[in-house]
Amino acid sequence: MRFLNSIILLVIISLATFACGDSNASIKLTGSEITSEDTTIVTFTTPVLKHDSTFAIDFNGNPIELIVKMPEVEFIGTIIALPGWNFSNTGWCDSADLCTEALSRGYALILPQMGKSIYCKNTYPQTRQSWLKYPTRKWMSDEMIPFIQNNFALLLTDQSNYTLGLSTGARGATLLVLDHPDLFTACAALSGDFDQSEFPKDNLYIGYYGRMSQFPDRWKVDDNIITAIDDLNVPIYVGHGEKDQVVDIKHSNIFVEAMKSAGKDFNYHIDDNAGHTYSYWNSEVNAMLDYFESIVR
Predict the structure, then answer these.
(1) Sheet of 40-44: strands edge to edge?
(2) DSSP state at residue 138
(3) Closest CA to 155 of 168, 170, 140
(4) Which of 135, 112, 114 is CA-nearest to residue 123?
(5) Rounded distance, CA 293 to CA 50, Å?
(6) Are the C-beta atoms of 88 and 94 separated by less than 8 Å?
(7) DSSP state letter for 136
(8) Which H, E and C letters describe 15-50, residue by residue?
(9) Closest CA to 113 of 145, 67, 163, 153
(10) pLDDT tens track for 150-198
(11) 59 has which bridge partners?
(12) Which of 34, 129, 156, 209 has the least CB density, counted as fewest CB within 10 Å?
């Protein structure tokens, strides 16, 4: 049975699933205890992590850094903030004001280190060997999200949860809400790419999927947001710079036209003078957060 607004998190007192937490990553458990014949469990309806912490979660033998940042003001929701291709997971904090602004408003932030991932759900025999160490979206769904839910009482279905990303991270953020239609409230996608089949010469896609001429389904179906557009059920904030020379604005135009045709809820902002830079992404921070807060769940 699926619990919606009444869901509570059941957490085993022994938090054995903690993986390589830093020395400051202890959690003070609060809540009501329920004793059964088999175990003792604690119920939570609010986050139990009270301070910023860094963890490592295994992916195919590789430790993937996960930073969790907690607000000092009243908690209002959680944002998974995704980096672009080979960008640091701390870029949103170091080169933009997302962390400062989001934390001041009451959001918890989830910052995974994704490396050279393009947020595929799976890898393939044709995927470049050197890229197999970077986490997939399946890892996010099977390992990262449950780790956060089970240990911190964040990303619960009765809370407000959001995804956002820049560049390939925008693709990842949108695919993640497609993977979890009942978990997220809204999404923001800046300078993103959404339909690999429209760009068959792109080396990043080729490096993961193989060539489109050989594996057309991987390009037209797997991880293809446009193909799955009818299943998109959360509002999307889309932003792109007109002068972007890394990810052409055609990517966002295709996405927006597909949402328009499918009758989806979105907001599209084009910056006529912006490129593929943190200066641009930083300029969108408050607009994204305002958009999240405008969505009534």
Answers:
(1) 9-12, 40-44, 32-35
(2) H
(3) 140
(4) 135
(5) 23
(6) yes
(7) P
(8) CCCCCCCCCCCCCCCCCEEEECCCCEEEEECCCCCC
(9) 67
(10) 999 999 999 999 999 999 999 999 999 999 999 999 999 999 999 999 9
(11) 62
(12) 129
Short-list 199, 147, 212, CA closest to 171: 199
Give the 3-state secondary structure of residue 267.
Answer: strand
d(CA 170, CA 184): 15
pLDDT, tens digit, 9 for 90 and up, residues 67-90:
999 999 999 999 999 999 999 999
Name residue 8's amino acid.
I
Beta strand extents in the chain (DSSP E only): 9-12, 32-35, 40-44, 53-59, 62-69, 77-82, 107-112, 161-166, 186-190, 236-241, 266-271
Q: What is the pTM of this model?
A: 0.85
The amino acid that residue 123 corresponds to is T
Between helix 98-105 and helix 285-294 the angle, nearest 10°, is 30
Length of the chain: 297
**Could you give the CA distance from residue 47 to residue 279 in angstroms, rounded to a whole number?**
32
Q: In the sheet where 53-59 sits, what is the strand order?
A: 53-59, 62-69, 107-112, 77-82, 161-166, 186-190, 236-241, 266-271
Amino acid at 88: S
Buried/exposed code over 240-254 (b: 16+ C-beta within 10 A; e: otherwise): bbeebeebebebbeb
CB 117 within 8 A of CB 97: no
* Tens-digit pLDDT profile for residues 107-144: 999 999 999 999 999 999 999 999 999 999 999 999 99
**Beta-ladder partners of 32:** 43
Domains and CATH numbers, the chain: 49-294 (3.40.50.1820)
Joined tokens for residue 63: 């430790």
What is the DSSP secondary-structure string of 50-92? -S-EEEEEEETTEEEEEEEE--SS---EEEEEE--TT--TTHH
Q: Name residue, tokens 């604690």.
A: 42
SS3 141: helix
* Kind and range of the H or E run holding 240: strand 236-241
